[in-house]
Amino acid sequence: MKKFSPCCSPVLQGSLPKSDAEELAALFKALGDPVRLRLLSFIAEQPESEACVCYLTEPTGLSQPTVSHHLKLLHDAGLLEREKRGAWVFYRVVPERLEAIRAALVTRAPRVREAKRA
Prior knowledge:
The protein has helices at about 20-30, 35-45, 55-60, 65-75, 95-110, 110-115, and strands spanning about 50, 80-85, 90-95. It is of the alpha+beta class. The protein has a single domain (about 20-115), classed as Winged helix-like DNA-binding domain superfamily/Winged helix DNA-binding domain (Arc Repressor Mutant, subunit A), CATH 1.10.10.10. Helix 2 (about 35-45) packs across helix 4 (about 65-75). The chain is elongated, with a radius of gyration of 19 Å.
């Protein structure tokens, strides 16, 4: 009987622990909508990385309830903090959560633009 050698070495290193994978999947799910990506980007670019919900309707072209729904999902995923000031709610980026995403992508995957070129 002929023995076959494997085509490549087995993948045994660099495994993402299950709990980390579940946490990252929840973050990616929250970011899996173009509106939420735009909202997060818009807030991150503001002074102190925060914005009032009242300023987020015009750039998205969406109603305030729809914007609030998307912001709630980002908040629930831990990507945004919120603070009520009078009648308005201000949202602030949680830099540690963005850093966790960045670190996961930098160490585990090629850059998106580089991957598209290949």
